[in-house]
UniProtKB/TrEMBL annotation:
The record marks C160 as: Transition state stabilizer. The keyword Isomerase applies. It is an enzyme of class 5 (isomerase). Its EC number is 5.3.1.23. This is Methylthioribose-1-phosphate isomerase.
Length: 361
C-alpha cells in the first residue's frame, strides 16, 4: 500500500539488507530500520517493532536467512529455529514459516543454505501478498452483497490491526475493505482502539487514513452499543491461529465483539491466509498458548506529548497490579464465515477440510 504516494511493504529487501517499518512509532513517524543479525530479528518480533501474524512469519523467515550467513551448520539451523521461535507464542505463522524454512534448507549443503534461505524468504513474503489479495477479492463479494441488499453505506467494525502492516501487504481483514473502497463501494470502518497497545488507534486508523477510507475510531466498549442501534453491518477481524475446528484466536477483546455480534444478528467474519491454520489444534480455548505481556502496557498508555516526543503516561495508581493476556479465542460457533484465499467457508472442521484438502492432515 502507499505512504504519501510511495508504495511500501511492511518488510522488504534492498540487496542483502532486510528493512522493516518499526511500528512502535506509528502513527507519528514512519521509521525504517535495517535488521542485520539474528538478535535484531528476535528483538524486532519480541518487542513488536513488527507484529501481526503473517508479518511475524515473514520476518522470522528473513531472520533465518540472515542468521544462516553467520552460521549455516546443522546445529545452527536448529539453534536459529529455537531462538526465533521463542520470540512470541500465539501466532502460528511464526512456526509455519520457520518449519518451512528448516525443511527446505536442511537437505542442502551448508554452503548453499544462506542464499537459498533468502530466496525462500522472498517467496514467503511474495506469497503472503498474493494470499491477502485473494482474501480481498472473496471478501469484496460479501461486502458487495451487503451494499446491494442495503442500498447505502456499509459499516464494518474491525478490532486490532489486521491491516497491511500486520502482513507483508494488503492486510487480511482490511483487504476486502480496500478492494471494496477501490471498487467505489461506500464503506465506513469502525476502528476499535484495541487497548492495551492501541493497534487500532495507532495503526489501523493510520493506514485507513493514508488510503482515504472513511473510518471512525471508537473505544473498545462501543461496539455492542453500535450493533444494538443497527450501525454495524458486518465485523471483519484477523486471526493469529485458527484451529482445525474453526476456533479463532485473535487480539484480546475479539471474543466480546463476537458475542455482541451474535446477540445482535451481525455477521462476524474472520479473514485469514491458510498459513494461519494450525491443523494440529482442535480446541482453541484449551490448546492455544495465550501470550501474557507486561502489566506496564495496561497501567500506562503511550502517546505523543506537546513537544512531539513519544511518552508513556501512567493511568492507574502506583501499586495496582495488572493482568495482560494479549489474545482470546472466539469459538467457531460464533463465526459466520472464514474468508480465506480460496473462498469463504463455514467455521467447522468439514468445511475447512473441504477448502484445504491438500493441507489438512
Ligand atoms: C493479519 S494480522 C491478524 C492478527 O495477527 C491481528 O489481528 C493481531 O491480533 C495482531 O496482534 P499483535 O499483538 O499486534 O501482533
Amino acid at each position: 500500500m502507499k505512504i504519501d504516494g510511495t508504495p511500501f511493504r511492511s518488510i522488504w529487501r534492498a540487496g542483502e539488507t532486510v528493512r522493516i517499518i518499526d511500528q512502535r512509532w506509528l502513527p507519528h513517524e514512519v521509521r525504517v530500520v535495517a535488521l542485520s543479525d539474528r538478535a535484531a530479528f528476535a528483538t524486532a518480533i519480541r518487542d513488536m517493532w513488527v507484529r501481526g501474524a503473517p508479518l511475524i512469519g515473514a520476518t522470522a523467515a528473513y531472520g533465518m536467512a540472515v542468521a544462516l550467513r553467520a552460521d549455516a551448520s546443522d546445529s545452527a539451523l536448529d539453534d536459529h529455529w529455537q531462538v526465533l521461535h521463542a520470540t512470541r507464542p500465539t501466532a502460528i505463522n511464526l512456526r509455519w514459516a520457520l518449519d518451512r524454512m528448516r525443511a527446505a534448507l536442511a537437505p542442502l549443503p551448508a554452503a548453499d543454505r544462506a542464499a537459498a534461505a533468502l530466496a525462500l524468504a522472498d517467496a514467503i513474503a511474495d506469497e503472503d501478498v498474493e494470499l491477502n489479495r485473494q482474501i480481498g477479492l472473496h471478501g469484496l463479494a460479501l461486502i458487495k452483497a451487503i451494499a446491494a441488499r442495503k442500498g447505502g453505506r456499509v459499516n464494518i467494525l474491525t478490532h486490532c490491526n489486521a491491516g497491511w502492516p500486520a502482513t507483508v501487504d494488503w492486510g487480511t481483514a482490511t483487504s476486502p475493505i480496500y478492494h471494496a473502497h477501490n471498487a467505489g463501494i461506500d464503506v465506513h470502518v469502525w476502528v476499535d482502539e484495541t487497548r492495551p497497545r492501541n493497534q487500532g488507534a495507532q495503526i489501523t486508523a493510520w493506514e485507513l487514513n493514508a488510503h482515504g477510507v472513511p473510518h471512525s475510531l471508537i473505544v473498545d466498549n462501543a461496539g455492542g452499543h453500535l450493533m444494538q442501534h443497527g450501525q454495524v453491518d458486518m465485523v471483519i477481524v484477523g486471526t493469529d491461529r485458527t484451529t482445525a475446528n474453526g476456533d479463532v484466536c485473535n487480539k484480546i477483546g475479539t471474543y466480546l465483539k463476537a458475542l455482541a455480534a451474535r446477540a445482535n444478528g451481525v455477521p462476524f467474519y474472520v479473514a485469514l491466509p491458510s498459513p494461519t491454520i494450525d491443523w494440529r489444534v482442535k480446541d482453541g480455548v484449551a490448546e492455544i498458548p495465550i501470550e501474557e505481556r507486561s502489566p506496564a502496557e495496561v497501567t500506562h498508555v503511550q502517546g505523543l506529548d506537546p513537544e512531539g516526543r513519544i511518552v508513556q503516561v501512567r493511568i492507574s495508581p502506583t501499586g495496582t497490579g495488572a493482568a495482560n493476556p494479549a489474545f482470546d479465542v472466539t469459538p467457531a460457533t460464533l463465526v459466520t464465515g472464514l474468508i480465506t484465499e480460496r473462498g469463504v467457508c463455514a467455521a467447522n472442521p468439514s468445511a475447512l477440510r473441504a477448502m484445504f484438502p491438500d493441507l489438512a492432515p
